[in-house]
Structures are given as C-alpha cells and as structure tokens.
Specification:
Helix 5 packs across helix 8 and helix 7 packs across helix 8. By secondary structure, the protein is of the alpha+beta class. A hairpin with a 4-residue loop joins strand 3 and strand 4. The protein has two domains: 172 residues, N-terminal domain of MutM-like DNA repair proteins (Alpha-Beta Barrel); 139 residues, Helicase, Ruva Protein, domain 3 (Orthogonal Bundle), CATH 1.10.8. The strands form two sheets. It has a ten-stranded antiparallel sheet. It has a two-stranded antiparallel ribbon with strand order 11-12. It is globular. Belongs to the FPG family. It comes from Compostimonas suwonensis. One of its GO terms (molecular function) is oxidized pyrimidine nucleobase lesion DNA N-glycosylase activity.
C-alpha cells in the first residue's frame, strides 16, 4: 500500500499538471459514471494529500476523494513533468545521477528534457515507474480505469482504488477531522502535541498505534518498522508506557523521513551515508533500510538476527536485542 510520501508526490503531480486547467472527467470502466458527471468540464483548483488520502478540488465546490488502498494506482500521460529522481533513473525512483540531470526553467526535470519524447506515461502507486512513450494523445485507457481526468495536455487514469467518491466541502472536513496529524501539512508544536497526547492515553501497542491513521497520518508497514528501530523501541510497548520524550522523537523522526521520501521518491531510512552508500541505498531496497524485509539477517547494529512476526495483520520486522 502506498505510504504517505507517495500520496504527497501524486498530489504534487496534480498541482503541477492539472490545477488551473479545465478537466474532462469520465469513467471508462463505468463504475464512477455518476460521480464523473458531477465534475466533468470543471476546473481543478486544488490538490491536497493528507496521509494516505488525496483530495482534488473543482471550481463547482466539489472534491474528488481518493484512497488508493492496496491495489490502487494512477497513470499519468502526456506533456507532464516529473522529478529528477524519475527522469535520470529511467523510471526507477531514486537511482539518480544529479550531475547529468537537466532541469527546466522551474527547476524541475521535464520529461521532454535530454531528448526524451515529449509525451510519456508515468505510473504512480507504491512505486513510481516511467513506461513506454505514447505516440498519440490521449492514449486509450488500459485496463479497468475507474476515473479518467483529461486536459488538453495531460491525462490521469485511476485504477483499483479503495475509495473514489465526490464530496462536498463539509464532508471533506469531516474526513480530514478523523485523521491524525500529517507533518507535511502541519509540523507545528500543536500537531506534535496532538500525536504525543494520542499515544500517551492508549494501552495499545505502539507498533499498532503508528499504523492507526487517526493517531498519525501516512505511516505504513515500512515506515513503522524503521521508525521503531531508529527509536530503539519495542513494538509491543503500550502507548501509555512510551516516555514522552520518545514519543516526541518519533513524531520528529517521522517528519524527517516523510520529507526525505517526498523529495527522493524513496523510503530511505538510513542517515549519514557517504556518497557511495547513498547511491546504493537509493538504487536498492536491500541497502536502504535498517530492518524492513531483513528477517533472518543480522542486525546492522548488533548482529542479532532480525525477527519477523505479524502485528495488526501486517508483517513486522524488528531487532529483539536493540529493541528489547
């Protein structure tokens, strides 16, 4: 499932390539035909991510709410702009060669830079990938497209979301009110206090609380494991038993890692790497994380084998010594 950084990056694509444009909205699959008709022909005025959910506003006052869930993905195509981490990696996010990156006038790496075709397809879900260039615009929908958003230069196709619905402003406010703080949107002391207070009052294991989107927005399985290891915190510790200073450190570390993810397109959770190690980490998940997907391998700090167990119906990776 896409974690918070991915959804923020998708919202940024909409902000760059759709906001301010009149959008033709359709449902090639047919399952969203009624909702599409409410938005069709209106101008997109805002694109906003909150944790794992995204909200697109239109000039008739309605919003499109999307939750990708496990299977959802957006395909962008046309004269679109992507981050340097996409272009210079030939589509594999994070494999960058900054020296060879050509930036456009806005400081972003255009897909039309470096001799690349003007019109290209970009897939964005848990991973980001440049696919084959397109020869006509708009391209035909591929697969079961729930909703298609089309301007005169870009198209976005949504497939397999958990949620796709049209909401009024008060309904959007109600959805967001149920979500925990997102440090990409609010890194204030008040947001930190809200997180610390939510953790302190619950007997639930901290390994479950970090995945509870009403406690904090955007954390998924990868970030959960890595945040807990970086804090040297046992995943089974009840929230109310987590020291206040540790809870504050968790929030600040989440803000840091989320920012790295939004900037690089990767869940890079190892700090203070030299240039060679940083390049390896961006290129290969095996060099990117402390504990995630490393079950049975020695801990990078103490050498104890990393443990894999199930918590909250999700796989949990942790070090039984450093996080004892």
């Amino acid at each position: 499932m896409p974690e918070g950084h991915s959804v923020h990056r998708i919202a940024r694509q909409f902000a760059r390539n759709f906001v301010g444009s009149r959008v033709a909205v359709s449902s090639p699959q047919g399952r969203f035909a009624s909702g599409a008709s409410e938005l069709d022909g209106h101008t997109m005025t805002d694109a906003r991510a909150v944790g794992k959910q995204m909200f697109l506003e239109f000039d008739n006052g309605l919003w499109l709410r999307i939750h990708l869930g496990i299977y959802g993905a957006w395909d962008f195509a046309g004269d679109i702009t992507a981050d340097a981490t996409v272009r210079s990696a030939n589509g594999r996010m994070g494999q960058t060669n900054q020296a060879g990156t050509v930036l456009d006038s806005a400081g972003e790496d255009s897909l039309s830079s470096m001799g690349a075709p003007r019109r290209t397809r970009l897939r964005m879900a848990e991973q980001e990938k440049l696919e084959e260039p397109i020869t006509e615009f708009p391209p035909e929908p591929i697969g079961q497209v729930r909703v298609r958003l089309l301007t005169d230069r870009a198209v976005a196709d949504l497939r397999g979301p958990t949620a796709c619905e049209v909401l009024r402003p008060e309904q959007v406010d109600a959805v967001i009110a149920k979500l925990g703080p997102d440090p990409q949107l609010d890194s204030s002391e008040a947001a930190e206090e809200r997180f610390v207070a939510a953790v302190a009052k619950k007997p639930t294991a901290i390994g479950l609380l970090l995945m509870d989107q009403s406690v904090v927005s955007g954390i998924g399985n990868v970030y959960r494991a890595e945040l807990l290891f970086r804090a040297r915190l046992n995943p089974h510790t009840p929230g109310k038993s987590v020291p206040t200073d540790v809870a504050r450190a968790l929030w600040r570390d989440w803000a840091h890692l989320l920012d790295v993810g939004v900037r690089t397109g990767q869940m890079l959770t190892m700090d203070d790497l030299d240039d060679e190690a940083y390049a390896l980490a961006l290129a290969n998940r095996a060099d990117r994380h402390w504990v995630y997907k490393r079950e049975g391998l020695p801990c990078r700090v103490c050498g104890t084998n990393i443990v894999l167990e199930e918590m909250g119906s999700r796989k949990l990776y942790w070090c039984p010594k450093d996080q004892a």
